Amino acid sequence: MAATPLLTPRARAIQRTTRQSPYKMRLVIDQIRGKNVSDALALLRFSKKHAAKQIEKTLSSAVANAEYKARLANEAIDLDLLVISHAVVNEGPSLKRFMPAAQGRATPIRKRTSHVDIVVSERAAKPKPTARKAAAKKTAAKKTTAKTAAKKTAKKSGEEK
């Protein structure tokens, strides 16, 4: 029996050559990975980090791409079920600059850039818990009746002796 996938692939957005170091961007992207889209957008909106603004733009673009894909396929999409399934910050090309130093020297400066990649997926709807609870109650009832029957027979056999 094949298990149903929890996430269905939806849309992605990529922002290339963002003028922020990947290390600083990863601090923010680690906070939102795997979260609900609405929770992640709220977290990014009130974050003090400069990287949060760039990541927020990329995330909202991914959500817009998911809506567009759903509209083209004539499907319904629930934005509350969207989850960030894949969020990565990779290193982009470095801008090489030089700064004057003492005694006529020049020291190199590397201004780092980042590539932000975010994939948004829709979490599959959970099965109704009422059906599961009913099945659990039936098995629990069977167990308790078997236990009580065993106790009663043990008492009767103990009383007869």
Compute the average pLDDT. Answer: 85
Order of helices and strands: EHHHEEEEH
Poorly predicted ranges = none
The CATH superfamily of the largest domain is known as Ribosomal protein L22/L17
Task: Say what oligomer this is.
Answer: single chain
Count of domains: 2
And the CATH topology of the largest domain? Ribosomal Protein L22, Chain A
CATH class of the largest domain: Alpha Beta
Major sheet: arrangement of strands: 1-5-2
Q: Provide a count of the helices.
A: 4
**From the coordinates shown, what is the CATH architecture of the largest domain?**
Alpha-Beta Complex
Radius of gyration, taken over Cα atoms and rounded to an integer in Å: 28 Å
Structural class: alpha+beta
Q: Biggest sheet: strands, sense, closure?
A: 3 strands, antiparallel
Which structural traits does this protein have?
161 residues; alpha+beta; Ribosomal Protein L22, Chain A; 2 domains; three-stranded antiparallel sheet; two-stranded antiparallel ribbon; 47% helix; elongated
